[in-house]
Amino acid sequence: MAKITLNGRPVEAADGTLLIDVAKQAGVAIPHYCYHPALGNPGNCRMCLVEIKGAPKLMPSCRVRVADGMVVSTESPAVAAAQSGELELHLVNHPLDCPVCDQSGECGLQDYYMSIGRYKSSMVEDKRHFEKRKPVGPRVMLDQERCIACTRCVRFLAEVSKTHELGMFGRGHQERIDLAPGKTLDNPYSGNVVDICPVGALTDRDFRYQVRVWYLDRSDTVCPGCSRGCAISLHTSTQRPWHNGARRAARIKPRFNPEVNGYWICDEGRYSYKALDRDRLGKVLKLKPSRAELSWDAAFSEVSSRVKGLLEDHGPQSLAVVASGALSNEDWRSFKKLFVDSWKLVNFAFDPAPDQAGEEDALLRRRDKVPNLKGGAALGFGDQIKSLPWESLAHSIEAGRIKGLYVVDRDLFGVWGAKTPGLLEGLELVVFQGPWKGSTGDLAHYRLPATAWAEEDGGFTNFEGRSQGYRAALPPVGDAQPDWRIFEGLLAGLRAGRAE
Amino acid sequence: MAVTVRPVTRPERDLAVQVYIVEVLKGLGVTFRHFFVNLGRHAAALAGVKAAPGAVTIQYPEDPPALGGRARTRHRILRRSDGSPRCTACLLCETICPARCIRITAEDSPAVVIEKRAKTFEIDLGLCVFCGNCVEACPVDAIRMDTGDLDIPAMDRRSMIWDLEKLMRDG
Ligand code: SF4
Ligand code: SF4
Ligand code: SF4
Ligand code: SF4
Question: CA of B160 to nearest chain A CA: how many angstroms apart?
Answer without folding.
Answer: 18
